[in-house]
Amino acid sequence: MPSISQKGRKMPESPIRKLVPYAEKAIKENKKVYYLNIGQPDIKTPQIALDAVSKHGLEILAYSRSEGSEEYRNKISNYYKRNNIPVEADEIIVTTGGSEALLFALGTIADQGDEIIIPEPFYANYNGFATASGVNIVPVISNIDTNFALPPISDFEKLITPKTKAIVICNPGNPTGYLYSKEEIKTLCAIVRKHDLFLIADEVYREFTYDGNEHFSILKDDSIYDHGIIIDSVSKRYSMCGARIGCLVSKNKKVISTALKFAQARLSPPTFAQIASEAALDTPQSYFDDVILEYKDRRDTLVKHLQEIPGVKVGIPKGAFYCIAELPIEDSDKFAQWLLEEFDHEGETIMVAPAGGFYSTPGVGLNQVRIAYVLKRENLIRAVEILKIALQQYPG
Amino acid sequence: MPSISQKGRKMPESPIRKLVPYAEKAIKENKKVYYLNIGQPDIKTPQIALDAVSKHGLEILAYSRSEGSEEYRNKISNYYKRNNIPVEADEIIVTTGGSEALLFALGTIADQGDEIIIPEPFYANYNGFATASGVNIVPVISNIDTNFALPPISDFEKLITPKTKAIVICNPGNPTGYLYSKEEIKTLCAIVRKHDLFLIADEVYREFTYDGNEHFSILKDDSIYDHGIIIDSVSKRYSMCGARIGCLVSKNKKVISTALKFAQARLSPPTFAQIASEAALDTPQSYFDDVILEYKDRRDTLVKHLQEIPGVKVGIPKGAFYCIAELPIEDSDKFAQWLLEEFDHEGETIMVAPAGGFYSTPGVGLNQVRIAYVLKRENLIRAVEILKIALQQYPG
Lengths: 396, 396
Hints:
- By secondary structure, chain A is an alpha/beta fold.
- In chain A, 38% of the residues lie in helices and 15% in strands.
- Chain A contains 13 helices and 13 strands.
- The first copy, chain A, has helices at 6-10, 20-28, 47-54, 70-82, 97-109, 125-133, 153-159, 182-195, 253-265, 271-280, 285-307, 332-341, 377-393, and strands spanning 32-35, 92-95, 115-120, 136-141, 164-170, 198-202, 228-233, 246-249, 313-314, 322-326, 348-351, 353-354, 368-372.
- Chain A has a 7-stranded mixed β-sheet with strand order 2-8-7-6-5-3-4, with helices on both faces. A 4-stranded antiparallel β-sheet of chain A has the order 9-10-13-12, covered by helices on one side. In chain A, strands 1-11 form a two-stranded parallel sheet.
- The first copy, chain A, starts with 5 loop residues before the first helix and ends with a helix.
- The relative contact order of chain A is 0.18.
- At the A-B interface, α1, α3, α5, α6 and α9 of A face α1, α3, α5, α6 and α9 of B.
């Protein structure tokens, strides 16, 4: 039998998805499962986006342009300008999800064996994209005790080698919910300028900030126009994860022309989803106001109830809709599996994402889980109650 | 300014898309352009697929499973079985176009610096996927004089090294229209068995065969179940290129479990497009009968009229909807650009795909173009007439 590639063997299993078989088994056993594990919001997609697809009126479902349709890119440019991020249509390449934007970005800036520095914990799938691209992730540790604030500059500089090509951040952060301050972004800008690196910012949760904190996009700092690459997506913004539409944004023309060659090879992003995404840009502000109020309430509910459980420590999220919780257990992989396989409280249990997969340093985060607050208030309360009871009963 | 990766600099420009700016200029000058350059059929998408999307009824556009929805994969399995290709649902991973299926396949079987052997000329974007994956294409030459038949076994065996991981074919072939016979496929199967390689077959044009010739899928040969990977797509089959739905098929469980890890990293294929693709599987046979009659008539029309031009040689396609034509010119890149920029006949011109991009051997195919017969009969006749006049007037 011919052999699988080393790369293929190294590809990580998704920490979020590997528990799915256990969840399916639990459901077959008629357990009710509260899903705290995945960032699939229960928020309705804006009707305007869904309707645009219903009325598509197409006779031939044709390729679009590789970089996305001109109309859509013009509207994205307007969206950025409304958010005080000065981006033109020709600085945008529409991608198949933020995922593809990150793949294109890594291919554009890094070769086999090159390195990218990422504050840890980070979005688990970065491991997959880095492995697929032959790029090594060098983690810089951020800590639950400082609520996952940006590590000191010296921590970054210690890690920079001739192979370092970029610093990658997710802001607001998945899985921490951390929102970098303007000062922290400026610090990162200074580092990438000094060391001639790229700064790749995954800003897909841009709208989701709480407590009056404002998101500061990397492209609000004009000193890093040649260094900055934004990864973006409609998935969370409009609760349309299934669209698979994102974009790569850069004011560096070489980055755009190179990423475009990757985009041309795969022909075009999906057409129906572009129709939905273009229409979604007309979503009224009231939609976001409601959604953000809802998430803020959920965050407050979740954090309050988690903090009441003895031995549980929570990173308080300032954005996005995740938090990292440290539990009084040793191995959250085993705990998460036990919750699905062996535990229930009155026929109900919960599914959490073990946090080990959000670290690339082995052995770190094993007593942590990521919790996504994508459920309604009353379900969140019940889910945390189940967690509390489970921790009392857990033999591990 | 930080530098672009070597990979990024090596990424080929799409030979099909690089002429687009010239075509846009021609159109601005009010020229009518007949597009012979791209495999975007003018055939209508089956209404049943378009209607399914119109009636989607979704409230939340959610992720699907990374491997594609179970219902859809079950229906694809039934489709293969109807075509006497014994494939089960768990041997299928739904991908974002055939493009992504090929990327997953290369990632699954090959590491940086590994080699794949492909009969040349080949689908130009294979160059892009190979570069993106760090894999080197080793071409085995097929020739217009033998109508692009499979080169002799000895030609393949001469090229096999310890780095060789797979032979990749496109059957029926883009850009040649060549349809491999059952005997040729069996020959390839024998080679991959003997040398323990994978055989990757891009079969996206499976339905498009003419003159009573039957397509022989690699998975009809059970001796290579561990070696075979099929790349498939709905793009051409149902004239829905803009869906971006394909699949990777293998009976090798390690291939599937590894490809699934790549699929998990990018979360899921597009949801709307899966709705369309699932519905498209109910397209009645009469649709294909009509479409294939139409393409056969177009092929006959195209070949007949091309053969009447002095100095033009045509590879006669037995499948798909492309042919390679050798023209009495030296540089088809320049000729294609000249057609758009400087030439017109009564305000009309044509766009062709220079064939150099379909070869990886430098300097080969420069006097050839790929012509896609995706236009109506009368337009094809007019387009070939324009080509004839252009060749008479071409100063190059």
